[in-house]
C-alpha cells in the first residue's frame, strides 16, 4: 500500500460519494502510483508545473498538460487532487472501452 504526502490507497474508501463507488484494489494502486509519479513535488496535488515536468520526460507537448489540468480540475484551483484525478481517468477509461466495443464488431478484442 502506498503512502505519500498523507495520501494512501485507504483514502479511496473514505470518499465513496466523490469517487462514485469503491474501486478494485488493483485500480486504486495503479491510479495512485500514476498520481504519485505525476505529483513531482509530492504535495498531494498535480499542478501545471508537475504535469509539464512529467510529460516532458516523455516528449509530450505542454499543450496536453494545460488541457488535462483545465478538464480535470473541477474546483478551478489550478491543480488536481487525487479524487479529481481518479474521477477524470476512470471516465476516460470508460469512454475508451465504449468506443472500442463499438469498433470491435466481432468482439474478439482486436
UniProtKB/TrEMBL annotation:
InterPro entries: EF-hand-dom_pair, EF_Hand_1_Ca_BS, EF_hand_dom. Transmembrane segments: none annotated. Residues 26-61, 91-110 form the EF-hand domain. One of its GO terms (molecular function) is calcium ion binding. Keywords: Calcium. The keyword Calcium applies. Signal peptide: none annotated. It holds the Pfam family EF-hand_7. This is Calcium-binding mitochondrial carrier protein SCaMC-2-like. It comes from Agrilus planipennis (Emerald ash borer).
Amino acid at each position: 500500500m502506498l503512502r505519500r504526502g498523507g495520501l494512501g490507497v485507504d483514502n479511496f474508501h473514505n470518499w465513496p460519494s466523490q469517487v462514485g463507488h469503491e474501486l478494485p484494489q488493483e485500480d486504486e494502486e495503479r491510479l495512485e502510483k500514476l498520481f504519485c509519479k505525476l505529483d513531482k513535488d509530492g504535495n498531494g496535488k498535480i499542478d501545471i508545473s508537475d504535469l509539464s515536468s512529467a510529460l516532458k520526460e516523455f516528449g509530450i507537448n505542454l499543450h496536453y498538460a494545460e488541457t488535462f489540468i483545465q478538464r480535470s480540475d473541477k474546483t478551478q484551483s489550478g491543480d488536481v487532487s487525487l479524487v479529481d484525478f481518479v474521477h477524470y481517468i476512470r471516465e476516460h477509461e470508460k469512454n475508451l472501452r465504449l468506443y472500442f466495443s463499438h469498433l470491435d464488431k466481432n468482439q474478439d478484442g482486436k
